Amino acid sequence: MKKFSALLIVFVLAVGSLFAGAQAEQLDIGLAMPETHVERWQMDGAALLAGAKAKGYNAEVNYADAEQAKQNQQIQDWITRGAKLLIVGSVNEGVVPVVAEAAEEGVIVIAYDRLITNSKDYDYYITFDNFKVGQFQGAAIEEALNLKNASASSPKNITLFAGSPTDNNAYVFFDGAMSVLRPYVQSGVLKIVGPAPLQSSDPAFTRITTENWRPEIAKARMENLLNADAQSVVLDAVLAPNDTLARAIIEALSSDAKYVSKLPIVTGQDGEVASIQYIRDGKQYMTVFKDTRNLAAAAIELADALLKGQTPNIQGARLDEESYDTGLKKVKAYLLQPVNVTKDNYKAIMIDSGYYSEADLQ
Ligand code: BGC
Fold it and tell me: Model pTM?
């Protein structure tokens, strides 16, 4: 009998420690990234995961292939597993019900890079100054086409592309770019070829957007323009919102005889390795680098403070409590600074900083 109870105690202790072990394995932080067809998200995901683990959190990253239903599933799974905090780069507004579910369970949600619109169930948003991203794009076109000294008697031609209509950032990027370009359109110095919204609230904006930031959509639209509105003109510039779309647009332009020797000025964003090569080779004019290492580190700092019940103080980010309204409430936005990249500084910004190695740029 004694032997039996001793065994029983050992058994109970063993099961107990197994159970404790299982509890320790419980998830702390879920990291939801929207897609992988745009390269940056894989870097965001990796940096977030490493950052969370370095602070001792049990974390997991998932990618949604630009499908909100898939991301919602991933998030629900994390809520069930007891996650305490979620960092969400959403696909679209369809994420709102699971954010509400998280809030009900007391799970903190941080909107990552993309604002989650029409939700009242989260308080924090961390991103780059996205209006500034657009301003850099507009200013690059202004400078490259020398718009300050151009005249309405020989206007420059531009065509406009925007990101996904389901992504709040697409509106902000466009408005930033047009804040620089609009006066030149209004004075007749810059002529828009194709649909011509002057701000994202214009109805024509929907005609220049690119669903889910899909490059094949932008390429097809550029090809159509080349055979229609842009057929009888030579384009001097194309406003492209990010690198993935910029390269798709350049691909379309390159198969038009008119642009074989000289491409229009094409903008971009993200500092994708293939676009840095294009910039080096003079095919893409510029990009805007948003260092995902910094955004991820800042997001983990924010998460850590919130999980510990502390007031966040995020190094290198500007707190803006006024500008970001989901439609249902204002959220606290932490904004990091983007960097303008051209042929002149790409080495310093992209390579000397260790983001890419020389070998990456073959
Ligand atoms: C991000 C960009 C990215 C785009 C497509 C935006 O929300 O801010 O960096 O290029 O989504 O993934």
Answer: 0.93
